[in-house]
């Protein structure tokens, strides 16, 4: 991205500057007009953007359909939670491992990314030979297994605190300031939600930059090559095994970062936050937005996260006014709309709402690709 | 590398067997390809040419036999190792990365000769940038070399059939091969295109790349190859200069068909 | 990636924000259910209520909401003065979907709406994470039904509950099993949810303390319907009593399958299946099984009969479980405001801590953690297809062995 | 020993239900190489519709013996699920037959969500109790207990599966189904209407799903709108275990998975000294799924298909 | 010969895949009772032509008149009931059906069970090998036997016109001989046939008439004997 700025024209600089200002003031505009609930929603949306961008590497770039992606989010969340809450204190005290606790953010975050990445490789390696549906099902299984372990690793030794979850997770502390407290700079009060907003924004931007740079590197090209034609990619000397594992690891590490931030933001994690439906929602963000296309994925994440919040503000009041009774509840409606959207988009616009040129081409190749195949056949028939 | 005598063996296989279930697709195949030559492989449909090709490029693991390239043992090695050793290929049914541009396709071909890792990709250190620039430049010049530079920005699948064939060759050349294996590059081409292709292959050979060629167009093969091997039913039934092969009765029988009487 | 695209995203986000804003326009009442509208002129005090109003325990959430609503409408009708000014109360009710993440969003909405206090949440899993936000904002929170001990162990000054916690409930059940049922061997099953596991752990502790042998500890999930495998294992261990920590949707079929396998042990559990649904799902096999409910038996609650009448008249439906508790929580919160002469959380919070209130559910006093002092637990048994109270056990800490004497609550 | 036999019986009963559902997955997979994610929801619909039909019938004063009432309920639910299966294929899968594999998988998930939510809209999100209409007297079997209903389930499952096997092996439609699953274009050369055969596959699979749904409901005494996912996933695992696309494999896989789960939940705790226990019961299905797919993707009875480059 | 009824008439047939024309406007005519060979190099468009004749590929232009009716655009599964059968390239047997089930698939559209059973016996008469192995899964047969299954299956559809695509491909010479004997026998029973074959000599020795196809066009059309004797054809075929 930075390279792009260098090459771009003054108008572009201006656009960039305006955009930066918009992003900078957004939480205050939101907070003033809609309340801090919406700032909080922005914060959570940012976490989903990171998640979706991570899954985008696996599904969008490398074409590996992962239905258990939320497991890496969980790994990140638990890493942060366990190292920054009183839960492990009794177990670790006196063992010489107390230094594990309360590490600075700049250590914990890479650690969460690393551990999630290692999980990505562990879960990815047995699935390398599988394709399409089978890969989806196996990753789904892995996702559930991770959740079940988090739910049950409270016995015989209490590691995760099982279904009770981990509570009293410390907020992020940066430059000696705890994010749970408001801070006033130049007369502007930055509350907890605002501080988290800027932190998450920074991380999301970082992940965007990393995504873009990976995409336009030899690694990114190798991912796409594998997605397009694994055999041909092999024949180009690409070590498909390593390159796929790298995709799993990178995607997982983004998930890990996002999960760690989720834990600190919520102050509480429990296994019920990492159910299969979350994986499906994140996948839907990637697919509906536009696989492999960063702006599309971001759009998908924002839309799918915020729509239910908007529905919450709309459906119930509307029903109360119109029929005086709540026949349909927003959650029900949200899921119904979500399901219909998945079907509808796949049928009508399978490349997603905001696809890359590339993807658009791919999904509209029915006719001419069939033709090409047939043509080859003809060439040899 | 430049002054090595013609006749130096580049690739050598012997006693290669490959079975699929009950089908004995290759039995006891041996051949050697010399540096700098265009070596042809012909045979009727189903004779095992493509199977042999896949064995030589690592896509299939042979059941038994010997396979060396530049003296390196490549028996049962993975495709990426084979490519790294210097063998590149094209496919009978063109296998391009459809939804990448022509240029990107060729850039993928540079993968095996470049080293940038994730850190390099993310931080874009000078070394990585230089490497990336090199990839770009080399890919452009290869597109130029095969004569499709003006299509560099188009999706591979939108190129014409002939250009797709050329692109596949450019992509293979991007891996810096010493041996370029082409699987029916002229299939589906009209005479003009076939003629251009012939010139391209001669150019590639003159630039020092040895070529292994499968082709149905016997006419093309006779005019182009230095030596030809003929496969039938998974066995090599003849080998030699085109003139010999053409007059070999077993070859005639294999091609024109055994007389029913 | 072009800049144009970035600006497009920005536009999209802003557009969304704008949409949100328009939709939010009828703000105050849009956020919640139609509340008793406060007449203009009076100062309006907002009280938040949060519970799952959708999903599979929506009926319980609705019940909680009704309790708050009833209290507020009565208070408004009675006319309340705080600090010499007439005030009106307004309920903002939010759906937390029983989901921790949604619960924190809801909590933030309450904080934004500057509610004076919150009644909720229903589940422990939502009450605990949201309590942090209330604590940060200094807003008092009274949960009518979250029984996980963790809630009041976090050290938040704003967290209260008007119901006995799982330590009390599990302990009471353990004691009941040992004393009343004279169990020698028990098997314990939980559904691996925060609720089920927490209760089961407390039961196990209490049972062991009473010298009961725990012969088996098995697990299932809150989605399961097949319990044959674990019940078969348990059968081999011949327990007298089987404790189930979980909800009615599992307890019902579990009880049926128990009978199928010819296991004679009694089933005992917590408030998760002390419901009519359990009797329906377990069918004939429900007969004779036990489940507890925090609080006194309804017929022994001092003001219950009256409350029940009002509730039925107003909502034309039966009380599920917790409506009397939300009713009490609302009224005692307002009492604290009255005593403090202010609805400002900072001002009335100290008064809330000093609560000594005689509610429809019984006397309510808080200990230093915010837990109810001497919260009671009643054990019910299914008799002739209906739940009937068979024993009331006091919180072990406050009133050991006060099983038969619910009225003798320590008062100060 | 009696405990072990009891666990085997438990596994057999659950396994028969898995097997019946697994057939639906395996039929569709065999013919389209598509995981019909929505099949679990069909099972749920079958159960819920039957409960509603039965309660409406008995509510309107129809006085039939219990089993007949259940049959009457099935007569309502089976056609509806068949129609659902037909519609799902028509709307969500057929237009995507030539699309990248990801597309139908996602519509399948979408359909599954929609069906579940529609069920929540109709029946609310509470468990419905299945009326007590079928005989369930207990019998002693080598120290273990088995009820009439359990026997009925196993027998009915075997009969239905047998019927399906005969249909697929002996009838013209069955032969056409198998032919289509092997080579669509040649089958159409033989005069087989591919679309018709595929539709029939969904319709038949859905009918089996409805029967299985009623069995689940009757066996456990309840049904609820979100029951489809887990049971569907387990049945899918059973299908994979047996060799997806292989009918006999689905049956074997179902029974085996039922027994693995049952015996595993019963004995894992003691074997591992309490480290692992019945709380990992749900993991068995996933473990089996992963191990089979990774080490023997063709399943127990499926033939290994050499993958060609 | 001219009195014989024209069974198939193809006019100006063009088939295009994407931008490329695989078949560039060909005319073909097959009369009742003929055995016609279509020969040509790989990639000349022979298989595409055959596929178009049974509806598996839709033509870009041209008409196919079969038995006096325009059959250019009907669904694939309707062809067989009109008397058109094809033995596809690579045989296309159903590997996990038994031999007999494969044969029954040939009679899929028919409902005359008694007649089918008679035809089945006739096929077993032609291919005694298949009778020996009727219960075996077809995928376990040798290549030659599979070819027999494919041909037997086609016969069971009682075709008026049988299209054979590369029946000799991948088979050992002795089996090829055998297959061609049977082709001649089927022809002698009055079934009209169009044979696509790489083994030109064999094909022309078997057929009455032949077409030579090159790069999507018909370059020669003559009697089989004439084509066999034609040196240009030989050259075109062998390349020089």
TrEMBL record, chain B:
Q: Which residues form the ABC transporter domain?
A: 11-258
Molecular function via GO? ATP binding
InterPro entries registered for this protein in UniProt: AAA+_ATPase, ABC_AA/LPS_Transport, ABC_transporter-like_ATP-bd, ABC_transporter-like_CS, BCA_ABC_TP_C, P-loop_NTPase
What UniProt keywords are attached to this protein's entry? ATP-binding, Cell membrane, Membrane, Nucleotide-binding, Transport
Does this UniProt record's set of keywords contain ATP-binding? yes
A Pfam family cross-referenced in the UniProt record is: BCA_ABC_TP_C
Q: What is this protein called?
A: ABC transporter ATP-binding protein
- Source organism per entry reads Chitinimonas prasina
UniProtKB/TrEMBL annotation, chain C:
Q: Which InterPro entries match?
A: Leu-bd (IPR028081), Leu_Ile_Val-bd (IPR000709), Peripla_BP_I (IPR028082)
Sorted alphabetically, which Gene3D superfamilies does this protein's record hold? Answer: 3.40.50.2300
| Ranges that cross the membrane | none
The Leucine-binding protein domain covers: 45-385
Task: Tell me the superkingdom of the source.
Answer: Bacteria
- What keywords are annotated for this sequence in UniProt? Amino-acid transport, Signal, Transport
Residue stretches in coiled coil: none
Q: Which SUPFAM superfamilies match?
A: Periplasmic binding protein-like I
Would I find Transport among this entry's keywords?
yes
Q: Which family does it belong to?
A: Belongs to the leucine-binding protein family.
Which PANTHER family does the UniProt entry name for this protein? AMINO ACID BINDING PROTEIN, LEU/ILE/VAL-BINDING ABC TRANSPORTER SUBUNIT
Q: What is this protein called?
A: Branched-chain amino acid ABC transporter substrate-binding protein
Provide the species name. Answer: Chitinimonas viridis
TrEMBL record, chain D:
Subcellular location field = Cell membrane
Q: Which domain of life is it from?
A: Bacteria
Q: What residues form the membrane-spanning segments?
A: 12-35, 42-62, 68-88, 100-123, 143-168, 204-223, 280-301
The protein's UniProt keywords, in alphabetical order, are: Amino-acid transport, Cell inner membrane, Cell membrane, Membrane, Transmembrane, Transmembrane helix, Transport
The membrane-topology field of this record reads:
Multi-pass membrane protein
The protein's matches in CDD domains, at most eight in alphabetical order, are given as: TM_PBP1_LivH_like (cd06582)
What Pfam families does its record include?
Answer: BPD_transp_2
Read off the InterPro entries from this record: ABC_transp_permease, BCAA_transport_permease
The family this protein is said to belong to: Belongs to the binding-protein-dependent transport system permease family. LivHM subfamily.
Q: What is this protein called?
A: Branched-chain amino acid ABC transporter permease
From TrEMBL, chain E:
Q: Which organism is it from?
A: Chitinimonas prasina
Q: Name one Pfam family in it.
A: ABC_tran
The alphabetized UniProt keywords are: Amino-acid transport, ATP-binding, Cell membrane, Membrane, Nucleotide-binding, Transport
Q: Which Gene3D superfamilies is this protein grouped with?
A: P-loop containing nucleotide triphosphate hydrolases (3.40.50.300)
Listed name of the protein: ABC transporter ATP-binding protein
Keyword Cell inner membrane in record: no
Family statement drawn from the similarity comment of this UniProt entry: Belongs to the ABC transporter superfamily.
GO molecular function terms listed in the Swiss-Prot or TrEMBL record: ATP binding
Where does the record place the ABC transporter domain?
8-240
Q: What CDD domains does the entry give?
A: ABC_TM1139_LivF_branched
Q: What superkingdom heads the lineage?
A: Bacteria
């Amino acid at each position: 991205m930075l390279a792009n700025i260098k090459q771009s024209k003054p108008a572009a600089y201006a656009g960039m500057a305006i955009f930066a200002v918009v992003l900078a003031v957004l939480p205050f505009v939101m907070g003033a007009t809609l309340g801090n609930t919406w700032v909080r929603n922005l914060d959570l949306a940012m976490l989903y953007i990171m998640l979706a961008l991570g899954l985008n590497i696996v599904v969008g770039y490398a074409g590996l359909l992962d239905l258990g992606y939320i497991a890496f989010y969980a790994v990140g969340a638990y890493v942060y939670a366990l190292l920054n809450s009183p839960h492990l204190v009794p177990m670790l005290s006196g063992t010489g491992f107390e230094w594990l606790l309360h590490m600075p953010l700049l250590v914990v975050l890479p650690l969460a990314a690393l551990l999630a990445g290692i999980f990505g490789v562990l879960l990815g390696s047995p699935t390398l030979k599988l394709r399409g549906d089978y890969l989806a099902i196996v990753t789904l299984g892995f996702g559930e297994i991770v959740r079940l372990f988090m739910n049950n690793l409270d016995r015989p030794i209490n590691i995760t605190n099982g279904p009770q979850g981990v509570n009293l997770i410390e907020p992020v502390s940066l430059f000696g300031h705890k994010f749970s407290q408001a801070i006033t700079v130049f007369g502007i009060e930055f509350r907890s939600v605002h501080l988290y907003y800027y932190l998450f924004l920074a991380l999301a931007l970082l992940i965007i930059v990393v995504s873009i740079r990976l995409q336009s590197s030899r690694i990114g090209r190798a991912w796409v090559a594998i997605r397009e034609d694994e055999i041909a990619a092999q024949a180009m000397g690409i070590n498909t095994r390593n390159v796929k594992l790298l995709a799993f690891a990178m995607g997982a590490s983004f998930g890990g970062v996002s999960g760690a931030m989720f834990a600190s933001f919520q102050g509480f994690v429990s296994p019920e936050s990492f159910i299969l439906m979350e994986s499906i929602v994140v996948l839907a963000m990637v697919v509906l937005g536009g696989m492999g296309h960063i702006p599309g994925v971001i759009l998908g994440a924002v839309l799918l996260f915020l729509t239910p919040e908007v529905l919450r503000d709309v459906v119930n009041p509307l029903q109360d006014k119109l029929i005086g009774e709540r026949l349909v509840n927003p959650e029900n409606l949200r899921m119904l709309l979500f399901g219909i959207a998945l079907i509808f988009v796949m049928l009508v616009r399978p490349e997603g709402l905001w696809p890359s040129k590339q993807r658009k081409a791919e999904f509209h190749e029915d006719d001419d690709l069939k033709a090409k195949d047939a043509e080859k056949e003809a060439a040899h028939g | 590398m430049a002054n090595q005598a013609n006749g130096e063996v580049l690739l050598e296989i012997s006693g290669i067997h490959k079975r699929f279930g009950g089908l004995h697709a290759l039995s006891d195949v041996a051949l050697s390809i010399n540096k700098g030559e265009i070596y042809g492989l012909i045979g009727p449909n189903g004779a095992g040419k493509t199977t042999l090709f896949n064995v030589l490029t690592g896509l299939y693991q042979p059941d038994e036999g010997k396979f060396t390239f530049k003296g390196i043992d490549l028996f049962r090695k993975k495709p990426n190792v084979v490519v790294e050793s210097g063998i590149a290929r094209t496919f009978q049914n063109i296998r391009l990365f459809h939804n990448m541009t022509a240029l990107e396709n060729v850039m993928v071909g540079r993968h095996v000769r470049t080293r940038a890792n994730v850190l390099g990709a993310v931080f874009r250190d000078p070394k990585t940038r230089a490497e990336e620039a090199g990839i770009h430049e080399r890919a452009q010049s290869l597109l130029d070399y095969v004569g499709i530079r003006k299509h560099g920005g188009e999706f591979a699948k939108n190129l014409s059939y002939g250009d797709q064939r050329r692109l596949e060759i450019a992509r293979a050349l991007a891996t810096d091969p010493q041996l370029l294996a082409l699987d029916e590059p002229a299939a589906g081409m009209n005479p003009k295109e076939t003629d251009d292709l012939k010139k391209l292959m001669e150019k590639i050979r003159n630039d020092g790349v040895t070529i292994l060629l499968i082709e149905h167009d016997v006419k093309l093969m006779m005019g182009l190859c230095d030596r030809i091997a003929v496969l039938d039913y998974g066995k090599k039934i003849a080998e030699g200069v085109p003139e010999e092969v053409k007059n070999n009765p077993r070859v005639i029988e294999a091609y024109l068909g055994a007389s029913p009487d | 990636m072009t800049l144009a695209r970035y600006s497009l995203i920005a536009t999209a986000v802003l557009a969304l924000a704008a949409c949100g804003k328009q939709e939010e326009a009828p703000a105050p009442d849009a956020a919640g259910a139609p509340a008793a509208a406060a007449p203009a002129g009076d100062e309006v005090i907002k009280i938040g209520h949060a519970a799952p109003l959708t999903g599979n325990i929506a009926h319980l959430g609705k019940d909680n909401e009704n309790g708050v609503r009833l209290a507020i409408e009565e208070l408004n009708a009675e006319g309340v003065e705080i600090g010499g000014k007439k005030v009106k109360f307004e309920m903002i009710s939010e759906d937390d979907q029983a989901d921790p993440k949604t619960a924190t969003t809801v909590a933030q909405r309450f904080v934004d709406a500057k509610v004076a206090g919150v009644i909720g949440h229903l589940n422990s899993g939502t009450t605990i994470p949201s309590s942090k936000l209330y604590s940060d904002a200094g807003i008092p929170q009274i949960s009518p039904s979250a029984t996980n001990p963790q809630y009041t162990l976090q050290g938040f000054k704003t967290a209260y509950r008007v119901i006995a916690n799982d330590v009390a409930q599990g302990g009471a059940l353990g004691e009941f099993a040992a004393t009343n049922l004279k169990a020698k061997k028990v098997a314990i099953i939980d559904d691996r949810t925060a609720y089920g596991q927490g209760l089961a752990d407390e039961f196990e502790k209490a049972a062991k303390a009473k010298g009961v042998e725990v012969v088996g500890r098995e697990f299932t999930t809150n989605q399961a319907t097949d319990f044959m495998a674990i019940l078969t294992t348990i059968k081999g261990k011949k327990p007298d009593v089987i404790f189930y920590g979980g909800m009615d949707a599992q307890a019902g079929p579990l009880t049926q399958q128990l009978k199928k396998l010819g296991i004679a042990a009694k089933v005992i559990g917590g408030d998760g299946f002390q419901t009519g649904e359990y009797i329906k799902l377990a069918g004939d096999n429900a007969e004779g099984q036990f489940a507890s409910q925090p609080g006194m038996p309804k017929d022994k609650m001092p003001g219950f009969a009256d409350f029940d009448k009002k509730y039925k008249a107003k909502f034309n439906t039966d009380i599920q479980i917790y409506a009397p508790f939300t009713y009490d929580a609302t009224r005692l919160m307002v009492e604290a405001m009255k005593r403090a002469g202010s609805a400002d959380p900072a001002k009335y919070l100290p008064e809330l801590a000093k609560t000594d209130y005689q509610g429809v559910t019984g006397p309510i006093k808080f200990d230093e953690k915010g837990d109810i002092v001497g919260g009671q637990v009643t054990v019910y048994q299914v008799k002739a297809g209906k739940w009937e109270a068979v024993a009331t056990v006091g919180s072990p800490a406050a009133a050991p062995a006060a099983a038969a004497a619910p009225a003798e609550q320590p008062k100060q | 020993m009696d405990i072990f036999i009891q666990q085997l019986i438990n596994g057999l009963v659950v396994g028969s239900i898995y097997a019946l559902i697994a057939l639906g997955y395996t039929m569709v997979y065999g013919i389209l190489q598509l995981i019909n994610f929505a099949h679990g929801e069909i099972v749920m619909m079958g159960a819920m519709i039957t409960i509603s039909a039965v309660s409406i019938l008995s509510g309107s004063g129809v006085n039939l013996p219990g089993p007949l009432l259940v049959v009457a309920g099935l007569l309502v639910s089976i056609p509806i699920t068949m129609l659902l299966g037909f519609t799902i294929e028509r709307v969500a899968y057929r237009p995507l037959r030539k699309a990248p594999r990801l597309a139908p998988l996602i519509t399948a998930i979408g359909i599954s969500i929609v069906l579940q939510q529609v069920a929540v809209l109709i029946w609310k999100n509470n468990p419905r109790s299945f009326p007590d209409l079928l005989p369930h007297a207990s019998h002693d079997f080598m120290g273990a207990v088995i009820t009439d209903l359990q026997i009925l389930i196993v027998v009915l499952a075997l009969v239905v599966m047998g019927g399906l096997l005969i249909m697929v092996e002996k009838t013209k439609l069955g032969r056409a189904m198998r032919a289509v699953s092997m080579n669509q274009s040649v089958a159409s050369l033989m005069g087989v209407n591919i679309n018709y055969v595929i539709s029939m596959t969904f319709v038949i699979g859905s009918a089996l799903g409805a029967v299985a749904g009623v069995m689940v409901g009757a066996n456990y005494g309840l049904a609820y709108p979100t029951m489809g996912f887990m049971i569907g996933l387990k049945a899918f695992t059973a299908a994979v275990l047996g060799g997806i696309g292989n009918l006999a494999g689905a049956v074997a896989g179902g029974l085996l998975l039922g027994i693995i789960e049952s015996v595993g939940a019963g004995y894992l705790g003691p074997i591992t000294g309490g480290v692992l226990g019945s709380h990992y019961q749900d993991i068995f299905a996933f473990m089996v799924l992963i191990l089979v797919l990774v080490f023997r993707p063709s399943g127990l009875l499926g033939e290994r298909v050499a993958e060609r480059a | 010969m001219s009195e014989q009824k024209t069974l198939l008439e193809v006019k100006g047939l063009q088939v295009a895949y994407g931008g490329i024309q695989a078949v560039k406007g060909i005319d073909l005519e097959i009369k009742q009772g003929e055995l016609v060979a279509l020969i040509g190099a790989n990639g000349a468009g022979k298989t595409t032509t055959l596929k178009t004749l049974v509806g598996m590929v839709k033509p870009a232009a041209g008409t196919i008149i079969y038995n006096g009716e325009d059959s250019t655009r009907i669904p694939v599964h309707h062809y067989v009931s009109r008397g058109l059968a094809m033995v596809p390239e690579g045989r296309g047997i159903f590997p996990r059906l038994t031999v007999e089930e494969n044969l029954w698939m040939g009679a899929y559209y028919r409902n005359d069970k008694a007649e089918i059973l008679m035809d089945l016996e006739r096929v077993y008469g032609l291919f005694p090998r298949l009778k020996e192995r009727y219960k075996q899964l077809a995928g376990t047969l040798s290549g030659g036997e599979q070819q027999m299954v494919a041909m037997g299956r086609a016969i069971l559809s009682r075709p008026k016109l049988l299209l054979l695509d590369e029946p000799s491909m991948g088979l050992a010479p002795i089996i090829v001989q055998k297959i061609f004997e049977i082709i001649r026998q089927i022809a002698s029973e009055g079934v009209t046939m169009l044979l696509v074959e790489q083994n030109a000599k064999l094909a022309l020795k078997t057929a009455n008439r032949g077409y030579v196809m090159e790069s999507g066009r018909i370059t020669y059309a003559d009697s089989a004997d004439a084509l066999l004797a034609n040196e240009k054809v030989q050259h075109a075929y062998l390349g020089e």
